[in-house]
Batch of 2 targets.
Target 1
Amino acid sequence: MKKLISIALVLVLVLGALAGCGKTEPGTTATPSADTGANATAPAAGGTIKIGLLGCYTGEYAQYGLAVQNGALMYIDKVNAAGGINGKQIEPIIYDDKGDPTEAVTAFNRMLDDGVTALLGSVLSGATMAVVPEAYAANLPMITASATAAGVTYNEDEDLVYTNMFRTCFIDPFQGEKMAQYAKDILGARTAAAITETGNDYAVGLKEAFVAKCAELGIEVVADEGYSKGDKDFKSQLTNINAKGADVIFCPNYYEDDALIVTQARQLGITATFMGGDGWAKVSEYAKAEDLEGSVYCSAYAPGSTPEIKQFETDYAAKYNGEVPGMFAALGYDAAIVLLDAIKAAESKGLETGSDEYKAAVIDGMKNTSSVGITSAYSYDEFNNPIKSAVIIKLEGGKEVFSQMF
Amino acid sequence: MIKQARDIPTPVKYLINLALFIIFLVVVNSMIASKTISGYYTKVIMLIGINIILAVSLNLATGYLGQLPLGHAGFMAVGAYSSAIFMKAASALPMFIALPLGLMIGGTVAGIFGFIIGIPALRLRGDYLAIITLGFGEIIRVILLNIDSVLGFNLTYGAASLKNIPKTTTFLGTFICVFIVCYVIHTMMKSRHGRAILSIRENEIAAESCGIKTTYYKTMAFVMSAFFAGVAGSLYAGYLGILNPSNFGFMKSIEILVMVVLGGMGSMIGSVISATVLTALPELLRAFADYRMVAYSLLLIAVMIFKPSGLMGTYDFSLSRLLGKGLSRLPARNASPARKGDDR
């Protein structure tokens, strides 16, 4: 009996695996959770343009992935509702990579099998960097809304720019440099300190750029402290910083840590101004207003600052049960705008959808884009990074308010 | 006349296996070359190969030696990083020299780490060994993460990931490694050394009293296990092209252990099957989107409830035994089918 059951189990495992094989046609790829209802009425194959959406839609960083996905799908649905591009509907093919580079590579190859024309993703830098060389080899147009590492578009070992790869977010060094400049010009800082999570590529990238720029601007970095992921007590690092007495403290980590660091610093009597990167968004929900007062961070997105953004916020809330969009949703929306504009340009040239010339035309369209997204107008530098100015957000009375463009 | 498996001379048995394996390689490789197997499935197959090596090598320490090391991902990481650093530096060397050399370096460095860790760790048993190897695995990960900023040079690039590693891993390379690893472990387990390792699993005190140098054999099995994990790591580095210490955390070790336990501890074919299924399953369940991880875990639970010893228990597949079974049925059944001593 036991033997029978175990044989049955083996069979189930194997059959389950094989059954998966048969069901992998693109038609099933619209995930139940995603609001792709608009695509159900899409015309038959041949009349669609397939776009891959790759990102961490489950797992530790799912909130970022889902925000990007929501933003991108919102624009795609909008275009589809308006009749698509050149009469063709956009068909999003959504795969989850859990933020894992290994899964990202297999999922990406799956997309190639499904015949995607372009890829919007991935969400995290590590997963994106694993995919880019393969997409480059296939010359597949690719845009990410949130992979900020410099290495995403540029291979420094071989001095090679991945010409097919674009993004709508800042790169890490850019934010660090901007904040150093801001410390010098606006805050008039003469000394600075930094505290970063050492295992975090994003935080380290920002910090290194900040320190380098400080040296260039003549700001003395008196302390450069690190901590490990999951640390909750930062008193020893902060005591060091306090002893050295810095004018500003650069703290470019994720918001939970930042909130704890600011709170503990105030307890130790540190009065220096705290500065951060776009990971600070929503920090006001995690620390007291008086502790945060006067801190600044840079972001790509200023909520409620322009009529377009207000419109976006209203539409987003209407589509996603009253959710308030953050920076990731806005950048996902922008990425979809830049990509679909380029596809429009390629379509208008009368090329065959999905052909190599078509893909080259889409890449060309993105490179010379003049798209206007909701966070900024876009144009790309020689490394395919967007040229746009940063938004400085200031903490005032427990609220994150738009201070200035910088 | 050949009527049973044991009548077939051993070299012939190995030759049959080798021939079948070469046929498998040629067929699949030509299918890949002709694009009958798409790029996606090739990737999954390569990943399966890498995971087979990991599972089979851990099976050596867990299934055969009977210890419970939880730091296998650490050895994989060491192998992956050392081979990746070598491959990046040796881009001038021709591929047929650089690739095997890279794999050997990955394996050797991991083996050295296995030796360093094995000496103190193997003095402990059971839970304590699990915890100390877990600790060592984490130490390796944290070192890889921080060594650059502490010592002030660029070697592993820490959290920024080691990027642009030459993508040298191919289907052929992976499965030749799979074959060699399985062959070496199989033959070793049939040899005097293998019997010694098994005796330690069954009863360490009895083994020691029979004059088996338990420390020596434990360390040997452990180092071998680490060596092969390093080889798998090297293949992984060449497969992915980017390495980050966070990919080699505690969960990776558990993932490999799950493969071994699910397949049956002490069964090589079990490790191979479960590594294959557990790698392919999440990919093939993509059609179920959000529910795929739930389906995956439910299958694990079901197997563990109905077959706690793993899918294959300690059964090991033997082609020649199968062949012998067939042979003994063909002619008149005068030769009794008793071959009980011929397991494993």
Target 2
Amino acid sequence: MKGITRLSTGLATASLLLGSLTIGLSATAASAATTFKACVVIDTGGINDHSFNQSAYEGMKAAQMAAGGSSKMKTSYLTSQSSADYTSNINTFISQKCGIIVTVGFNMGTATATAAIANPKQKFAIVDDILTDKNYAPLNLKNVIELTYNTNEDAFLGGYYAAATSKTGVIATYGGMQFSTVSIYMDGFVAGARAYNKASGKHVKVLGWKPSADTKGMSSTAARVAAGFPGTGSFVGNFTDQNAGQTLTNTFFSQGADVVFPVAGGVGIGSLTAAAKATGKMIMWVDVNGCAAEAKFCKYIDASVTKGVKVSVKGAILAAFHKTFNATTPYVGTLKNKGAEFILNKKVSASLKAALNKAAAGIKAGTVSVNPMDYPASTN
Amino acid sequence: MSENKTSLWQRYLSANPVTMSFLAIFLGFVVGAAVIIFSSSDVLHAWTQIFNSPGAILHAIKVTLDNVGAAYRAMFTGSVFDPTILWHALTTGQDWTAALTPISETLTYAAPLVIISIGVAISFETGLFNIGANGQAILGGIAGTAFGSMIHLPMFIHLPLTLACGVAAGAFYGFIPGVLKALTGAHEVIVTLMLNYVVAFFLLYSLLSTPLQLPGQVNDLSRVILPSAQLPNFFATATTLRVSWGILIAIGVVAFGWWFLNRSTLGFDFRITGANPNAARASGINPKKIIMYVFLISGGLAGLAGVVQVDGTTHSLDGGFLIGSAGIGFTAITVSLLGRNKPINVFWGAILFSALGVGGRIMQAETGIPLDLATIIQSAVVLFVATPVMVQEIFRLREGTLHTVELNTKGWSS
């Protein structure tokens, strides 16, 4: 008889589960009201990646706060476990009737474009990508706002600052992979260093990135943007291998560099490790505020060249929420709108501070160029 | 009355494999419910209030049932069907796309998982651990993409050859550890595991160098497979129904696996070798030959899974193809364990795992409970399947009339 009692316990639990299923059914069916829902498709890095995905998630939460909390705006996110999930996640959110769907990163470009064309009434925002067709012509979709960032503007200030504070007269940068979203940083960094050389008459050398003219020999700002910031330089080959970052950074140190600017996400932690083991070496952090993201290494991070993913995602969501969504003018993060910010983590001399402020004002006004080809490169 | 002549009801109560599997799945969901309860602040808050007013305990129970119910309801409606939408489609004949989307998504994810799991199950049944199925699948995907995107042929020949390329690449990549094991005794676990890393870097290399990389692209994206080589969608008209003919290939592979292990001479040799290598050798089976055949077949099926994934679903490769937590070669190991290496059970196991993954996504979107809950349920189910004695004790089942408690694999050496 014992078997029967145990089994009936099991059956009771089963009916409890079944009962909850039906109650849940009626409960959720009733609560399906029309509150605005902001949805974010996160890439494989997850929401704690100390980079883009985390910033996008924080942007979503910040938009919710600004809208008046969870009663005014619901939020939802889905983490992709592989690239096969992008389409599936976007379709899930379309069926959830999200007010806006934010996709993070160029990897989701194709999936976002396909979904946006198939669902012209669904609003989208994509971080760090311009949607193009098969022949790389921009699609200019009316329902997708593209969030891009002129990070060469704040990287310019980074390069200027690094050149001014270098004691050895050698600074360095390297990238994860040669994407235009990476080389734009390195381009601005070199431009800043060259601008410092021009202003001070010194000859600070930059290792790791050598900008070059495009295939037609053009080197104007527009040509560089169109060609994805061409040049040759040091690239680790991925965004995860910290050992490779440490080795490369040590190489730069042995070549005399005392400030290194890694543009390689998590690989930069390898640079921090290298700086912690050396003396008198500093690292400039990328994408987010390094002293917040990698707090234990803060004393080796003298400045951060950031990308305003959080503020732009927040802005795009709130635009959709307030019905001011307008995709005809894409969002471009700049020094001016704080979509590209240079953050100093160290006290600097008043004269350097003044020079940086003057350069920043010039960039905002458009009188200071962030194109390295506009400066003499004799010392590089 | 003899022991075997028991009533049907008592047969259900005994520890036969079918009952045990269902109870293991059921217990998995109970564990999942417990996790929802203990991780939901609403539920916990309701339970802290139960002494404040007489009706509070009822309220707490209701909140608990609401939360657990909403999660499991979302999982079910997201992966099988939504009763209200299906009813609407049945009565009005409209919106069939929406009604079929959940099951279509489940089958989309299931197709490659079924194929690769059958391959892994065949190697387990022979007592060999193929941990490299993921790498074999990736190489199959690369080969299939290369052939499907760069060669121009009419469809009736292009599609089969694309799939054949995937099978050949997977079989080749499986053959390496097979040969090493057979000729030098190198342990297959180490070799297959390490070869996974080799192929991961080969994938990045091929995506960033000239022939395979999408022309004009600096990112790690491959060329797109030509329409003549793509596995067509099952429902050609509706674009959101992603399920392709790959699911029929998967069913074919299940039939092949069943026939191979139960009806073919070579399959019989495989099983004998798995059951007792010494006896197999004594009865004239050449173990070296068997080892090489196992890895050829297991690798070939893994390669087929890889090419079905890219050919039926994504149509192009990127740097994240089958890597990381989505590495189906590793999920396949648990699926084969769940199905006790029997092809038909493995099929249902793969469907269950895919449904949990797909439903978990809808659950996260609707209720905010993280997708990881699906992984917890999957893990718990496997745990209960692997410990039949525990399940038997929990439900106080009679000893099975069949001898149920059998080893799934032989361990790390044979």
